[in-house]
Amino acid sequence: MIKKITIILLVFCVSCTYAQNIYYFSSSAGNDSNAGNEASPFQTISKLNSLSLAAGDKILFKRGDTFIGQIVVSQSGANGSPIIYDSYGTGDLPVLSASDGPNGNPDPLSTIRIIGKQYLEFHNLKIENGRFDTTGTDDDQSFGIYIQSFKTLPGSGNFEDAVLFNYFRFSNLVVQNIYSVNSSGTAFNNIRTTGIYFLDAFVNDVIIEDCYFTDIERCGIWLRKYVSDAIIRNNKFIDLGGSGTIISGSKRVLYEKNMMRFTGSNSDPRMTGRGSGMWVFGSDDVVAQYNSSQHARGAGDSSGMHVDYGNTNILFQYNYSEDSAGGFCETLGANDNIIWRYNISVNDGTIDRSGKNKLLWVSDYAYVPTKSTNVFIYNNTIYQGKDYKNVIGDSEISLKAASLNFINNIIYLEPAAKLGEKAYLFDVNTPNFSKNIMYGGSIKLDFKNLDATKIIQSPLLLAPGRRHYSGYKLVTGSPALGAALSFTEPSFPLAGLGIFSAITSDATKDIYGNPVNLSGATNIGADNGSGEPSIPTVVTYEAESGIIVGGSEINCSNGSGGKAVNVGSAGQTLTFNTVNVSSTDLYLINVFYANPLKSTLKVTVNGGDTESVILPYSDAYCYQSGVPTSFPIIKTLNAGDNTIMFEQGIIDKMEVVSVNEATLSTEFERFLDKTEAYLEKTIIPSSETLRLIINKEMSSQNVEITIFDINGSLIIRKNLDSKNMSLEANQFGTGMKILVAKVGAQLIVKKFIVY
After folding, report:
1. Edge to edge, what strands does the sheet with 735-743 contain?
2. What residue range is the signal peptide (predicted)?
3. What is the Cα–Cα distance from 21 to 426, expressed in whole angstroms?
4. Do 378 and 404 contact (CB within 8 A), yes or no?
5. Beta carbons of 279 and 247 less than 8 angstroms apart
6. Which pick of 92, 219, 711, 726 has the fewest CB atoms within 10 Å?
7. CA-to-CA distance for 631 and 591, rounded, in angstroms?
8. HSE-up of 140 (CA within 13 Å, CB side)?
9. Which fold would CATH assign to domain 677-754?
């Protein structure tokens, strides 16, 4: 009877409502002796760590404030009543940083530490951890959020045979400035520095969404070991030293609608300088779809996305990959059932920064070299032409597998491009090549001859060479229309189940949302539409026809009309006031520029918020006989005349063309969150410049900037033009500083660190 009563109580308590406490924290207006409510908030992370939290509790940090110290999550929530960490108030997200600058106080390994806890949520926070001062160990590591369990793998070798920790939610986080004390002597594979890091986590049910990762030594998200049923979606990974995401030792992961740009970056000397946008290793049952990866760099694995070794049941579909150093479809050894379908690859493969330059790449690389089985590459569209440095493609082919199926793909090369001529390896036990279009340039004859049913005609793409997936639709009369091979597709065993409830085993649509049924008549390539009736109208605006403020018209022998406009300095602008379109819609704005270094272009449309767009480098300046290159920006324009303003670039011309809404959402083309004001960097070396960025609505006013030391002593006060709010950091001294900016009636307070 006692056992029965106990069981009844346990069942009842699954649906218990837990008492909820809400604790408010403000570093600027709080005190640890306060009551901890909104009117009387606590102040420090030390106080937070001393609280005995319970299921259902909320911890709220005041927006605009900075909190220094490591948060040690020492309590779990409960099913239906998680412990929630969030923000309150208005203004910038609150900053949580374990590091307080180079002051001799040891900087913790992570800003948020979670060991063996569960039912946790984190929302609307900015997380940093630029470590400077040693703890005596792990100087080559740093983390924003660190999750570990200290469990050991069961004898079965299956982590899911252990009792797992459940329910983790992360949303609307900005994770940046994550750097170790010093990793200069550490091998690349031993550098773990990551924004959100799971190590021996033994966790289930994870969602990471709508987060922004930038300025990190290596990785944005790393499921390093033992995570199941994870969804990673709608995130932006911009300018990271390594990969956007690594999925290793995990099961059942859905990775969708993420944007990855400039992974493997070296924009900060502390960055590792190598990394694919995303990759999977030693994992089972992963789907990656509707993702965009551009400008991955590095000497090792630096593809748009890739499949490392030891995986089973991996499905990559509806993704856009462009200008990656590694190439397309990188698949290493000891894998089984790897599916690449309905993806678009544009100018992947380069030797830039020692890139692998293997456009088509399947290998046997594994701990023990082992050829992969059941690799399927079908209905993809692959384009090769000129890259951003105006270098024509000359990529390698390297294919080594037990069984490889290459079916219904389009390979389109510009006339001077080459594929497989530079280097060619083919070692496949059971090849199956059918109904591929191989057109243009110079394609290795041995490779072409693998397909007895190949088509050597132009596929008639809508706008080949466009740096956007909209350019790779088929037009009326294409030989790809209705010409695909009908075949039985490989199975994705978990389709329709759990987190894959919306995933189908067979392809049912293409990257543009058109229906697909490969058991019947379909198209070759990634577009299964009926054919576009005509090429859309492209309207060109020469830079010299715009309104130039502060900059100048310059000669550019290789530019359109032999002219360009230099508005490269802060505050200089080029404005087009009469950009006329027929209907309110999304438009592709191709900006042709001649900046030989990776740079930031500011764009303002119709007086709205100014967005900063990172541009890849072109081959040279105009005066060095540089040839302008183009970069696509997606904007909504209104019917009638529109105003488009550019700052900080050398602009040749602008093209405007309508982009029909497609399944691969153009929202993932956008870069920065729209905030009223932000510091370009919050941790900067003394040799650099401190810059405050404000939005367009505030930019017509003068700004008074005051810098204080952390002890409150005045360092400098200046009145500046809102278009040029830059100060040399070497005049402040090192350590933590406080910036106060008066913009009209608004007061902006920011903390930053100089080292």
Report:
1. 683-684, 746-754, 735-743, 702-709, 714-721
2. 1-19
3. 64
4. no
5. yes
6. 711
7. 5
8. 11
9. Immunoglobulin-like (2.60.40)
Closest alpha carbon to 409 in 359, 343, 323, 470? 343
Place of tokens 């091979």: 485
pLDDT tens track for 419-433 = 999 999 999 999 999
pLDDT mean over 728-747 = 79
DSSP secondary structure code for residue 485 in this structure: P
Instruction: Determine the length of the chain.
Output: 755
Separation of CA 406 from chain center: 29
Strand pairing category for 344-346 and 381-384: parallel
Q: Which two tokens stand for residue 408?
A: 């219904």
How far is Cα 325 from Cα 447, in angstroms, rounded to an integer?
22
Distance CA 434, CA 351 (A): 30
| Nearest residue to 210 (alpha-carbon basis) of 125, 285, 98 | 125
The answer to whether residue 723 scores a pLDDT higher than 60 is: no
* Cα separation, 237 vs 501, whole angstroms: 26
Both structure tokens of 305: 């996305």
Q: CA-CA-CA-CA torsion for 363, 367, 372, 377, nearest 10 degrees?
A: -50
Count of H helices and E strands in the chain? 3, 57
300 contacts 363 by C-beta, under 8 angstroms? no
Residues pairing with 147 in the sheet = 114, 198
CB 153 within 8 A of CB 135: no
The one-letter amino acid code at 8 reads I
d(CA 172, CA 232): 12
**CA 95 from chain center: how many Å?**
21
Give residue-wise pLDDT tens across range 474-503. Answer: 999 999 999 999 999 999 999 999 999 999
Residue 108's Cβ-count burial label (10 Å; 0-12, 13-18, 19+) is: buried
- The single residue listed with the structure tokens 């900063």 is 612
- How many Cα atoms occupy the beta-carbon half-sphere of 69 within 13 Å? 13
Beta bridge partners of 647: 573, 602
Distances (CA, A) of 278 to 70, 264, 287, 323, 723: 28, 11, 12, 15, 37
- At 672, give phi and psi (nearest 5°): -100, 145
Question: Rounded to the nearest 5°, which phi and psi values hold at 71?
Answer: -85, 120
In this structure, the dihedral spanned by the alpha carbons of residues 281, 283, 285 and 288, taken in order and rounded to 10 degrees, is -30
Cα–Cα distance measured from residue 738 to residue 706, given in angstroms and rounded to the nearest whole number: 8
Nearest to 227 by CA among 208, 209, 245, 200: 200
Which residue, chain included where needed, has tokens 């491009």?
Answer: 417
Structure tokens at 658: 């309508």
**Phi and psi torsions of 665, nearest 5°:** -60, 135
> What does the block give as tokens for 181?
């004390």
Beta-strand (E) ranges in 373-417?
373-378, 381-384, 394-407, 410-413
In the Cβ-directed half-sphere of 84, how many Cα atoms lie within 13 Å? 18
Under 8 Å between Cβ of 705 and 741: yes
Summarize pLDDT for 185-234 with one digit per residue, the tens.
Answer: 999 999 999 999 999 999 999 999 999 999 999 999 999 999 999 999 99
Q: What share of the chain is helix, strand, coil (3-state, %, to 5)?
A: 10, 45, 50
Name the CATH code of domain 539-669 (choices 3.40.50.150, 3.30.450.20, 3.20.20.70, 2.60.120.260): 2.60.120.260
User: Across the chain, which distance is largest between two alpha carbons, in Å?
Assistant: 93
Contacts of 743-748 with C-beta under 8 Å, sequence gap 24+, read 743/677, 743/694, 743/698, 743/701, 743/703, 744/698, 744/701, 746/676, 746/698, 748/676, 748/677, 748/692, 748/694
Q: Which two tokens stand for residue 349?
A: 């493969």
Q: What three-state secondary structure class fits 405?
A: strand
